[in-house]
């Protein structure tokens, strides 16, 4: 590790002082159609990694030798090559690429392929889009911009975890998230104990490009961990030329977004009687003289976040470097919540010989996330919503600095007093600190002009320290203080060798073939200590605990893979691909350890035959089809039941809740993908359309079993899930004229899932962390969509009318059944980019339609008498629209009025889970970005190449029919352990999403 | 250069041999151990199971009731929205599963003492569980079968009896080569085999009493009592006064221990509970309180001992006029947990002798039961006065069932066995003269008393649905539907 850093440093150092025996070449690049200058055109010396980009005036300057070939590339343009002769000025006019298909995309194993020849769907996002999202969690930066993706963030708190799922969830209870790969090296995106998803450690500004490989075909080459797709990240690189310096600074101000409404009429108590020792707001009306505090809104503050980025890059023809440092300090909308991140990334590339190059990257990241209120819900906002309205929550402390008690309990025991949430936020702080180092080495050897050997090795290592302190004086068990602390080490080492042959065999046939070997080793060790009762009230150390417990867990997993891929490109209109991979995983029993899975794909490009008018209209058309399988192994250490610590008197061992299963075999996901891509009117409209079907069988799931078995959980091969869906991406360059550009893109995604088989006699598979209410839970029901809601409803007649008893109360059918689907029917995103002279404006709308939300927040607000609708309905007379069953079995319309009192709401209304399932839509103005580049004549004088000012607004407005807060909810998120169908669409007192505005300044020297 | 590439490649390819993949054994936890390291969990978990049963049933048996009268389960017996019934897993997973594993390890190494103790605990756990739930898997239990068949309760009882017999046999054949069992393993008897045998006979006496009214066997009970008395020492699990964690506190205690998240459903709520009229009347005689009341509770703010009808909340009374339920003999953080009390053994004897016509023995056992309760509570000196009061029957000829059952009721304060007694007698006033049906029990029960707990909704109703359907356990009336020994009881009517 240290050696690699040293080496990289040395290379960079050498590169800075290397003297090139070359000359300066400069020029201007313009658009051939209108003669306007082009900003950001890449100018590279062919066969090297050195080059530059054009500035705001379209100018470039670099050093080259006579005979070098300069390659000019710009998105949407046909690349042009110019050989350097005697001239010192090379001006180039680039032609529009009608099909924009020469664009290169990064696919599995970092292999760059022309989009034209792709036989499956890959969507990529460029640095500018990532930057303009102003999201520090890179998962959130993809939101609304990519089709086929579900992203749900757990809350609006700094460092909140986000969940990403591509093309629907395949596993009933495993992790459904894709693999994250940076510069060819897989990294951990895990999330433990409610802490953030670890991919968010990556500074989004270090990213050059993200490619999303959605399907099994695209991901087959990454093997097991890419069974749910892959997110391939390429970081920024230096280019040859003068030292370039970039500086960016921004400040973001945020405020709380949409909240659930609460009633302001009734005080605490029950049965209309005032009670000063309860959260239950079923008391009498407030008197005019009462103070009624808006504790809910007062709970939040204005969040301020500051970000600073700096980078230095450059290099000689043989050595380039890129060094970036960044610092983020994000203070949230809840008191005392913050997320800080500092990172330094250094990449050096060296051409050791004409044919051998080496790139090494080291990325050192430190993050620190603090919160008193846990971002991943778990109902942390419950006491904020229910806090007695006659009490000013903002009065937190007694004069002596201790927590002010909201009431003195009858028992006199202060441990029974609920804690003031603001006090909790300020005092019971959890801190999650991560120290992470990502290093990678990419060694490339061009053996000859058609054979290439590539070796990538990388290591992702982090140390995480998590500490949650409950201050002396907390309610309940932690009254005398408590600490929960863990240290976690995580290491992922990968080594990949690929030998690639790319040969034009005949004039018609091009063959690309590769074989490779991949070795992966995952290691995790978690040491945790927790305990209660401080000796010294203010000392927050485990040394100070009177009761203490500790435990350790180590997880190891190793995989060896061998793979091959062959692609035949016949006359540019027929592409055929076959891949195969065999994996050996340590987590499976010896006899099932090895497994093979293939993929086949095919593309036909009829537009190669078009000419004349047809070619003018339909500039490009491609049909593609693929069939692929991906295998998946088991979680580590699941073959046998072990013993675990018993913490009671005399200690010793007891049975671990997990039963072993020595017969596990790999799980197989099969996917068929069909697609069509076409470009109309010379690229005015580009349409990609994909249909897929994917089925995953013999799933390795960890269902609960009846404790009668002697275990609580069991790992088994069982269960099948089917997903079918469509993805569409429509892009258009509506205006592309002098100094004015308007590009728009619309993406659509709809997925339908179905749970077709389950373990044993099960008809239902509940999501462990989705059981916040007992009347409606997040659960998968056999034969229904995976993201189901299972719960109770009113008793109904065959034609669906509610059956009411003789008194007029609806009757509860306590038999639980499938009552809703949390997966939206359709996701969409609409992105628009305008550029007029020096001004760029972009805005992004996204949203979803047809999702059913389980609004447990609403249910609990009714239970505690805080729901806003109680202002209108409480104690009102009401006749239920339903029918009463007669003795002869016939029904008559109900006409018995009932009083909508506390008994009704708590014992009737709240018992029907279906009352808290809402079908919703939402449209969000997610992002508006304005960037103004200062005129170059103005800044050029002071040596600045480009200076821009940005105003960016996030989550500006939300249109929705949802009765609660923000419908884009995920109660537990990936960190809450919500695997499988997860807790997307489960609303349970989470910290709401925020609205924010960012002011930024970018400078390039 | 080329050489080094080949070297690197070779290293990684060699790395890929089979040993490289053999990393799937847990580094932190073993699959096996010796039985001495399993016994603490078996005994400790049994106290949590025992407490869980007690916490649930003490509201049904009207020792206590809630302050608000609005608790779904405690006041209305409404299990429709209950997520967990933890008693189920506490028996199967926490006690029985570990006992079974301990027996396996002990049998393999030939430690008869651990085999015997294991079987007795297995029997005790199954007995107390089936008395809560009725029919339940026993033949398929702990075999790994994920959809086990529910056996009828008589089958469970037969298995319990088998285990007791096997346990007794194992303990009678212990040898010097057995692994030592001391207080570091056996927190109850410190490895005293004779005491374990006594406990086994006491369990036999208890279980036979449940069925003797319809299968006969009162004389067997008296035999078991005699065998139990030979070396009798209460199966008492004590908790330290300086516990260093909630795992080592009595769960009835004022610190309301909740050692782990999954104890939430049985965390005690004595801080918001008060005594019922039924209990307080039993503790009151012509305005005077039974002296034991002051040992079972601590005085409230106003020093009064009000009580309320079960399930109705405080009914407008001031909480300060009620006794505090904490820090009585059974409700401290360091109170002992007793699986079968000395008093219970006497009252089993009294009842069995009564029905077998030995009134003298019945009367003596009745008096012993009361006096041993006074002794336990440290007020032996007050027994004589009480014995001579109208609260106690003065001669064997006057002794009747309500006398025995009400004194047993008092002596078994907060013990789950009281629920079994009440159900044997159909909650009848012929045994419990002033017992009243709780006002707020769900109307759908139509005046029927709760007689069983539902199986754990979070596991059985989801993971073993066919068996649940076969039993009809989804029915709202399930908890008021009698099981085997209730259905057959000849004692339910006067």
Number of domains of chain A: 2
Portion in helices of chain A: under 10%
Query: Main beta sheet of chain B: strand number and arrangement?
Result: 2 strands, antiparallel
Rounded to the nearest angstrom, the radius of gyration of chain B is: 25 Å
Strand order of the largest sheet of chain B: 1-3
**Greatest contact pair?**
A-B, 82 and 89 residues
Shape of chain A: globular
Question: How would you portray this structure in words?
Answer:
By secondary structure, chain A is mostly beta strands. Chain A folds into two domains: 22-97, Carboxypeptidase-like, regulatory domain (Immunoglobulin-like, Sandwich), CATH 2.60.40; 122-252 and 301-859 and 920-1004, Maltoporin, Chain A, CATH 2.40.170. Helix content of chain A is 7%, strand content 49%. The two termini of chain A are 32 Å apart. Chain B contains 19 helices and six strands. In chain B, the strands form three sheets. In chain B, strands 1-3 form a two-stranded antiparallel ribbon. At the A-B interface, strand 27, strand 28, strand 33 and strand 46 of A face helix 1, helix 3, helix 5 and helix 17 of B.
Strand and helix layout:
The complex is a heterodimer of chains A (1005) and B (494).
Chain A: H1 2-17, E1 23-31, E2 42-45, E3 51-53, E4 59-64, E5 69-73, E6 80-83, E7 92-94, E8 104-106, E9 112-114, E10 122-126, H2 127-133, H3 138-141, E11 149-153, E12 162-166, E13 179-182, E14 185-187, E15 207-213, H4 216-219, E16 230-235, E17 241-256, E18 269-270, E19 273-274, H5 295-298, E20 303-315, E21 319-331, E22 338-351, E23 356-371, H6 382-386, H7 421-427, E24 430-446, E25 451-470, E26 482-504, E27 509-534, E28 545-570, E29 574-585, E30 594-604, H8 612-617, E31 618-632, E32 643-645, E33 653-655, E34 658-659, E35 667-680, E36 685-697, E37 700-701, E38 713-714, E39 716-717, E40 720-737, E41 740-757, E42 764-766, E43 776-781, E44 788-794, E45 803-804, E46 812-821, E47 826-836, E48 839-855, H9 856-863, H10 870-873, E49 877-879, E50 883-885, E51 891-893, E52 897-899, H11 902-907, E53 917-933, H12 936-939, E54 946-960, E55 986-987, E56 994-1004
Chain B: H1 2-15, H2 18-21, H3 39-60, E1 64-66, H4 72-76, H5 87-109, H6 112-133, H7 153-172, H8 193-215, H9 218-230, E2 236-237, E3 273-275, H10 277-282, E4 284-285, E5 288-289, H11 292-296, E6 337-338, H12 342-355, H13 359-376, H14 383-387, H15 401-411, H16 417-424, H17 460-463, H18 465-471, H19 484-487
Antiparallel strand pairs in B: 1-3, 2-6, 4-5
């Amino acid at each position: 590790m240290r050696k690699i850093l040293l080496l990289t440093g040395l290379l960079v150092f050498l590169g800075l002082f290397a003297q090139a025996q070359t000359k300066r070449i400069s020029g201007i690049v313009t658009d051939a159609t209108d003669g306007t200058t082009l900003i950001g055109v890449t100018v590279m010396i062919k066969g090297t990694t050195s080059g530059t980009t054009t500035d705001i005036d379209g100018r470039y300057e670099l050093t080259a030798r006579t005979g070098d070939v300069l390659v000019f590339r710009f998105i949407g343009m046909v690349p042009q090559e110019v050989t350097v002769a005697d001239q010192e000025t090379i001006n180039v006019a680039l032609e529009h690429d009608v099909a924009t298909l020469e664009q290169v995309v990064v696919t599995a194993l970092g292999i760059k392929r022309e989009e034209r020849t792709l036989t499956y769907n890959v969507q990529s996002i460029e640095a500018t889009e990532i930057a303009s999202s102003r999201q520090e969690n890179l998962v959130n930066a993809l939101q609304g911009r990519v089709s086929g993706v579900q992203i749900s963030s757990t809350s609006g708190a700094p460092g909140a975890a986000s969940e990403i799922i591509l093309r629907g969830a395949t596993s009933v209870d495993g992790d459904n998230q894709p693999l994250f790969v940076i510069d060819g090296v897989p990294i951990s995106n895990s999330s433990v104990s409610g802490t953030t998803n670890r991919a968010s450690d990556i500074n989004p500004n270090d990213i050059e490009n993200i490619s999303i490989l959605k399907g099994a075909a695209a991901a087959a080459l990454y093997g097991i961990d890419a069974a749910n797709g892959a997110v391939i990240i390429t970081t920024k690189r230096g280019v040859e030329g003068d030292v370039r310096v970039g500086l960016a600074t921004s400040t973001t101000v945020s405020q709380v977004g949409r909240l659930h409404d609460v009633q302001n009429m009734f005080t605490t108590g029950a049965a209309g009687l005032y009670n000063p020792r309860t959260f239950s707001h079923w008391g009498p009306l407030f008197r005019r003289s009462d103070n009624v505090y808006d504790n809910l809104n007062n709970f939040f503050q204005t969040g301020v976040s500051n970000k600073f980025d700096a980078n230095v890059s450059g290099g000689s023809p043989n050595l380039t470097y890129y060094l970036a440092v960044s610092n983020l300090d994000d203070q949230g909308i809840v008191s005392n919540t913050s997320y800080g991140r500092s990172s330094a990334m250094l990449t050096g590339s060296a051409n050791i010989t004409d044919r051998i190059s080496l790139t090494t990257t080291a990325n050192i990241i430190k993050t620190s996330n603090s919160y008193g209120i846990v971002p991943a819900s778990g109902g942390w906002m419950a006491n904020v919503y229910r806090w007695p309205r006659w009490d000013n929550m903002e009065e937190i402390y007694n004069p002596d600095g201790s927590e002010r008690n909201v009431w003195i309990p009858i028992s006199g025991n202060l441990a029974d007093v609920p804690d003031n949430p603001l006090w909790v936020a300020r005092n019971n702080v959890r801190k999650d600190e991560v120290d992470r180092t990502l290093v990678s080495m990419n060694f490339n050897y061009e053996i000859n002009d058609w054979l290439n050997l590539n070796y990538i090795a990388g290591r992702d290592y982090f140390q995480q320290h998590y500490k949650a302190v409950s201050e002396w004086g907390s309610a309940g068990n932690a009254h005398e203080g408590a600490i929960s602390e863990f240290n976690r080490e995580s290491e992922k080492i990968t080594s990949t060798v690929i030998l690639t042959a790319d040969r034009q065999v005949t004039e018609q046939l091009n063959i690309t073939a590769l074989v490779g070997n991949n070795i992966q080793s995952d290691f995790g060790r978690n040491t945790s200590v927790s305990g209660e009762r401080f000796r010294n009230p203010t000392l927050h150390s485990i040394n100070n605990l009177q009761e203490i417990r500790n435990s350790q867990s180590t997880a190891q997993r190793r995989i060896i893979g061998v793979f091959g891929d062959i692609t035949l490109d016949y006359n540019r209109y027929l592409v055929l691909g076959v891949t195969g991979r065999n994996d050996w995983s340590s987590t499976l029993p010896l006899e099932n350890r090895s497994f093979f899975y293939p993929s086949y794909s095919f593309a036909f490009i009829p537009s190669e035959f078009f000419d004349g008018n047809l070619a003018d209209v339909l500039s490009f058309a491609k049909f593609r089809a693929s069939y692929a399988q991906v295998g998946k192994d088991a979680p580590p250490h699941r073959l046998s039941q072990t013993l675990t610590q018993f913490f009671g008197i005399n200690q010793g061992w007891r049975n671990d809740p997990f039963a072993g299963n020595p017969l596990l075999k790999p799980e197989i996901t099969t996917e068929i993908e069909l697609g069509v891509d076409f470009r109309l009117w010379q690229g005015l409209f580009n349409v990609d359309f994909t249909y897929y079907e994917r089925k995953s069988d013999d799933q390795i799931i960890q269902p609960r079993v009846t404790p009668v078995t002697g275990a609580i959980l069991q790992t088994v091969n069982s269960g099948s899930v089917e997903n079918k869906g469509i993805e569409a991406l429509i892009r258009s360059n509506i205006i592309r004229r002098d100094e004015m550009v308007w590009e728009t893109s619309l993406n659509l995604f709809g997925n339908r899932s179905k749970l077709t088989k389950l373990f044993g006699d099960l008809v239902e598979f509940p999501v462990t962390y989705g059981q916040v209410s007992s009347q409606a839970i997040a659960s998968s029901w056999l034969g229904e969509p995976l993201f189901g809601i299972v719960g109770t409803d009113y008793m109904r007649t065959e034609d669906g009318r509610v059956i009411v008893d003789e008194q007029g109360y609806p009757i509860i059918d306590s038999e639980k059944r499938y009552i809703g689907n949390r997966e939206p029917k359709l996701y969409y995103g609409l992105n628009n980019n305008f550029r007029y002279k020096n001004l760029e404006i972009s805005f992004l709308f996204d949203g979803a339609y047809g999702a059913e939300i389980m609004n447990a927040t609403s249910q609990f607000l009714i239970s505690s008498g805080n729901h806003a609708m109680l202002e209108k309905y409480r104690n009102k007379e009401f006749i239920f629209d339903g029918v009463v069953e007669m003795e002869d079995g016939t029904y008559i319309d109900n006409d018995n009025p009932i009083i909508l009192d506390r008994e009704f709401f708590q014992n009737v209304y709240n018992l029907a889970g279906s009352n808290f399932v809402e079908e919703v839509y939402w449209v969000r103005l997610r992002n508006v970005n304005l960037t103004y580049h200062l005129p170059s004549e103005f800044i050029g004088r002071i040596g600045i190449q480009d200076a821009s000012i940005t105003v960016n607004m996030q989550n500006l407005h939300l249109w929705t029919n949802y009765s609660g807060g923000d419908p884009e909810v995920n109660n537990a998120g990936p960190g809450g352990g919500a695997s499988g169908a997860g807790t997307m669409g489960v609303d349970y007192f989470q910290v709401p999403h925020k609205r924010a505005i960012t002011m930024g300044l970018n400078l390039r020297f | 250069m080329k050489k080094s590439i080949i070297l690197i490649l070779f290293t990684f390819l060699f790395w890929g041999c089979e040993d490289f993949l053999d990393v799937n054994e847990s580094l932190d936890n073993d699959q096996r151990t010796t039985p001495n390291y399993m016994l603490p969990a078996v005994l400790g978990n049994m106290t949590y199971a025992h407490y869980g049963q007690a916490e649930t049933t003490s509201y049904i048996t009207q020792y206590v009731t809630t302050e608000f009268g609005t608790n779904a389960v405690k006041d209305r017996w409404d299990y429709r929205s209950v997520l967990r019934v933890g008693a189920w897993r506490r028996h199967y997973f926490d006690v029985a599963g570990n006992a079974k594993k301990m027996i396996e390890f002990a049998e393999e190494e030939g430690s008869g003492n651990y085999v015997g103790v294991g079987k007795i605990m297995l029997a005790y756990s199954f007995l107390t569980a089936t008395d809560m739930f009725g029919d339940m898997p026993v033949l398929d239990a702990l075999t790994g079968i994920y959809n086990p068949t529910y056996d009828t309760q008589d089958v469970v009882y037969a298995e319990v009896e088998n285990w007791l017999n096997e346990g007794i046999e194992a303990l009678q054949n212990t040898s010097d080569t057995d692994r030592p069992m001391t207080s570091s393993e056996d927190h109850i008897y410190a490895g005293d085999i004779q005491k374990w045998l006594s406990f086994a006979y006491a369990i036999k006496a208890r279980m036979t009493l449940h069925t003797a009214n319809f299968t006969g066997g009162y004389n067997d009970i008296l035999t078991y009592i005699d065998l139990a008395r030979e070396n009798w020492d209460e199966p008492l699990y004590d908790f330290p006064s300086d516990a260093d964690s909630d795992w080592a506190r009595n769960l009835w205690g004022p610190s309301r221990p909740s050692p782990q998240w999954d104890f939430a459903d049985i965390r005690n709520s004595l801080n918001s509970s008060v005594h019922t009229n039924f209990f307080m009347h039993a503790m009151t005689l012509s305005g005077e309180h039974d002296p034991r009341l002051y040992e079972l509770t601590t005085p409230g703010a106003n020093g009064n001992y009000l009580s309320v009808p079960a399930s109705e909340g405080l009914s407008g009374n001031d909480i300060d006029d009620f006794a505090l339920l904490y820090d009585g003999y059974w409700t401290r953080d360091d109170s002992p947990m007793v699986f079968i009390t000395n008093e219970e053994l006497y009252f089993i004897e009294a009842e069995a002798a009564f029905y077998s016509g030995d009134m003298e023995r019945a009367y003596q056992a009745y008096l012993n039961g009361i006096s041993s309760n006074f002794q336990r509570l440290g007020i032996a000196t007050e027994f004589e006065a009480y014995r001579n009061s109208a609260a106690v029957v003065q001669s064997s000829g006057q002794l009747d069932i309500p006398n025995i059952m009400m004194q047993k009721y008092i002596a078994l304060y907060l013990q789950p066995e009281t629920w079994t007694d009440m159900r044997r007698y159909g909650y009848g006033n012929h045994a419990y003269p002033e017992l009243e049906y709780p006002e707020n029990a769900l109307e759908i029960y139509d005046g029927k008393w709760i007689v069983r707990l539902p199986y754990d909704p979070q596991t059985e109703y989801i993971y073993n649905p066919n068996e649940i359907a076969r039993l009809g356990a989804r029915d709202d009336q399930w908890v008021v539907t009698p099981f085997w020994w209730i259905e057959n009881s000849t004692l339910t009517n006067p």
